[in-house]
Amino acid sequence: MSTKEKKLNSERLQRIIELCKSVEERGVDPFAVDVDDIIATLHKYFPDWESTEELALDAEAIQYLASVIQNQGDWVKHRSTSLYTDPFLLEEKIQRLCKEELATLFTTVWNPIIELEQISISSLAEALRYWNDLLPISERWQKNGPLQVETGVTTREELVRLKILAEKTFFEELEAFWKELKQKVGENEKILYWDFVGADTYSETIDRAYMTSFLVTYGYATLELHPLEEEIFIKPFTKPKSELADRRMVSVPISVSSEEWMKWKEEKQG
Questions:
Q1: In total, how many domains does the chain have?
Q2: Is residue 89 part of a domain?
Q3: The CATH number of the domain where 207 resides is what?
Q4: CA atoms within 13 A on the CB side of 216
């Protein structure tokens, strides 16, 4: 194996270690790690390691992978001992029940709270003090005449300037943003997430990330994740896929912090 190939394999091994460490340090779902794929990768690279540093890196990857497997076991153990039930299973069970069965279950577990209130001497005294402290009605209800406001005319441009009307509707902006994504992608079919949402200012980057989330939600585009390479691509569809709204969507949290923006900007300028 050439020195260049060894370097690439070492970098891939380092990314595996960082992925496994994120389970403990950042609370990433342990089942997001493809254990079988990582084991196959380690098994493939192991015969080529020769130096002490390479073997130590391989051992470190195995150690963190074992920690991930332990976290997966702890997760299953916790769910089984705490009588955890998947919310989707509960939803399906509830949908299968008829009205009579739901009513029976509700009356079985319902524990109404009964409270007894009564008038006491102290509450009567407090009420009397309240009414005695009130100003006379003539002072409380000031008879002010109606305000006279002169009518006038305005233009749509003036209303847009005052931000009473939007210059474009939300879906017009979304369509324009989708068109921009398709132009930037071109024949490559996809583009790195940060290369698309990144802008000269952090506030503009936040706005672009906000619009990108709606592109994915409304079926204009999709995200392609490469966890080992720590890369996220956004891929536009040629036509909006409205059927995505009928499927259960998976939330993908993406950090768009000022630190991430500065790191992207420095890499771009470098």
A1: 2
A2: no
A3: 1.10.10.580
A4: 18
